[in-house]
Amino acid sequence: MGAVVRLARLQGRRDCGELAAWTVGIAGLGYAAASAVTTEFAADTERAALMGVAAASPAFLFLRGLPDGIGSGAVTFFQGYSFTAVLAGLMSTFLVVRHTRADEDQGRAELVGAAPVNRTASLGATLLLGGGANAVLALVVAAGFTGAGLPVTGSLLAGAAVGAVGLFFTATAALVAQAMPSARSANGAAAALVGAAYLLRGAGDALGTADSPLHVVAAWPSLFSPIGWGQRVRPFTDADPRPLLVLASAALVLATTAVLLRNRRDLGASYIPANESGAARARPGLASFFGLAWRLQRGTVAGWCLTAGVLGVVAGGLGPVVRDALAGNPSVAELIRRVVPGEASMVDLFTTAMLGLAGIMAAAAGIQAVLRLHAEEAEGRAELLLAVPASRVRWLGGSLAIAAISTTAVAAAAGASAGLVLALVQAGGSNPGTVFAGALAHVPAALVFPALTALVFAIRPRWTSAVGWGALAVALVLGQFGELLGLPAWLQDLSPFRHSSAMPVEAFNRDGALMMAAVVLLAAAAAARLVKERDMTV
Amino acid sequence: MHAESSPVIHTRHLVKSFGRTPALTGLDLSVMPGEVHGFLGPNGAGKSTTLRILLGLIKPTSGTARVFGIDPWAEPVRAHRDIAYVPGDVTLWPNLTGGEVVDLLAGLRGGADEGLRRQLIEELDFDPRKKARTYSKGNRQKAALIAAFSRPARLYLLDEPSSGLDPVMDDVFRRHVRRVSADGATVLLSSHILAEVEQLCDRVTIIRSGAAVESGTLADLRHLTRTRFRVIAANPEVVATVQGIHDFRRDGSTMEFDADAADLGTVLQALATAGVTAFTASPPSLEELFMRHYGGQATGYGTGQANRQPDQESPATPATPVTRESQVR
């Protein structure tokens, strides 16, 4: 046990900066949501109007969660819980994979394994660290809610609901790390499970039934989502800590299974075996920077496209629910008409919100493609590549081209599947072509992120990952909470997505698209210019 | 394009600092066409930094570096056209097979010579179907060596290339260095393994703390060091006081000492009067030369074997030369 604690402290020391950033970011998001509600929507009537619109709109339910009355705490929980829970899940999965499968990939686990500790000590330490990190996260989130003026008991329970989801995904990722053969695949699979938890909760909430105008009960899909369980705590209304016990028990079962599986396998082995052999010769296309970048990224691109396709199917499949949502509620329909100008149908509003999400996924896929460059450099492979008679600019260009292809493909996959399924279920709304175009309309804004990431890589490679993902997180917060927080327009305008078109509700914004395209080209050109100017880190 | 007499590699007062840490402190290095040049120094002496500057991967803080007369930082693509490089620590793409890695790296340089590729894979006993993630250090090194040697180049930059190879594979490696050298290519071979350098290199530059401390042919360098004598004589005492004698030790009629190359004549004259009955003289090994340049820090380099201990971890030893007869010749 002493060894486990010591190893956990070692792992914690490696992580403390990163975990602090995650914790402050997640709690900051919660604080922002809470203070928006307590300051911008201080009066009961304002919150009632807000929740009236939200409760009647499946798009809101899908994205945010379940309305639970008009109390400040309940409104905050509705607005912010799903996002903070997703972030807690991602923090936990990355933490676990970093110390398990990634350490085995890099050979560090071998050093620890040679010490007089048993086989599962390192995994136990990681689980301990994950538990500790989520306990701290729960307290910091609770402090944020309290600081924004919410009741203490409710804040603590809400924080615990966030931490419990993190704990669940700590154990889930530990299990995934036993199964997957590489850190990259383990991170991908575990993050996909976090995404699935969000989607299942979204579907359950959107399909939920209102038992009173401002209180919605989730449908069955939510039961399969840990985020759905966390939501059932309802910390600021009819508080019920039992769902926390469900999550903790599930985490315990998963973690125990992971430890048992770790004890039964060889160091470096995986339950899903890695492909150990392949072609003796390369295909002709591989021997170029573009060909290599494609080969390295194609699996990831396929994963993103699949996820975006699933999002599209879910969005399209919910069409009839959305169409029928307002049938029995004309007064709320009238309210929504006032909030959302124009003649947009409910189905189009929902589709627009979904395509916005697809735009963010497209940006993330592009960022990931550019981050390959940094991995190549940091792990020493760039040294081999850049000793050949081809310039660094072409090296950068190869990955940027793959990033552009990834971003476009992910947006197209979401748009195509959403348009197709919407047409199949005959929910009304825009035709498939318009929906597809609406997805592609986000591409110029989404491309800003890989281009910015490439620029950072060209100047300060060490910051590539932090700035790339950080920029996307900031854009996400500005987009989802900017209006709610009443942030000044210039600040909200910093998000590239403010300049893309919210089709099909809005018309195509040509100027915005051109402006974003210009930003992308400028950033890419600057990156190409500057990448030649610095030392390679070797 | 260039006259045969102009050096393939030429650096002058090369300085490179990483932040406040100096890596090179004024390195002069000159490698002539067709030479196999040993670049000898302990870990952290600046060997890899030099190679990376020669490749234009990093920019010198001051001083000049020229490869084929080209500034590699300003024109890396032109400089790389005729260079094959094997880094000291080879990392590969875990998802690519060894064969794909070879094709990728050789292909980026214009494509491998199929016959050479097949020959190298066979001789190095390399399995090109395995994914790189399953490779040991030695196998990763082999992949880089096959990629480098399977396409003819005018300059081979090899950074401790055989550190992961077993003796049999090492032999294959040496054969190919001799082959490309016979074809007229220039080779810069960085190493801290003396045996490797002694066997392969025409000329040697010894680098220490970022600067060259010695450069020349092996014969030149030997000339700078001492010959070890072991003599049985009737009157050993007549030798003890001769100029150029060091570490004189006497046990009855047996004496051992080292003699400076410049004073060998005097020493031999003195020996002629000493009544010698038995006599051995061992040529100075490069090891001893190396030891002298690294003073008391470098016991680990004395055996001629790969010794990857960083020198600060080596126990301090007296600066006197080794007293045993050298086995390396």
Molecular structure report:
The complex is a heterodimer of chains A (538) and B (329). Chain A is mostly helical and 538 residues long. Chain A has a domain at 1-270. Chain A has helices spanning 2-40, 44-56, 58-63, 72-99, 101-106, 108-113, 121-147, 152-179, 183-206, 226-231, 242-264, 289-317, 319-325, 330-339, 346-378, 381-385, 392-425, 432-440, 443-459, 464-485, 489-492, 510-530, and strands at residues 209-212, 215-217. The relative contact order of chain A is 0.09. Chain B has 2 domains: 9-217, Rossmann fold (3-Layer(aba) Sandwich); 226-282, ACT domain (Alpha-Beta Plaits). In chain B, the strands form 3 sheets. Chain B has a 6-stranded mixed sheet with strand order 5-6-7-3-8-9, with helices on both faces. In chain B, strands 11-12-10-13 form a 4-stranded antiparallel sheet, with helices on one face. With 329 residues, chain B is an alpha/beta fold. Chains A and B meet through α12 and α16 of A and α2 and α3 of B.
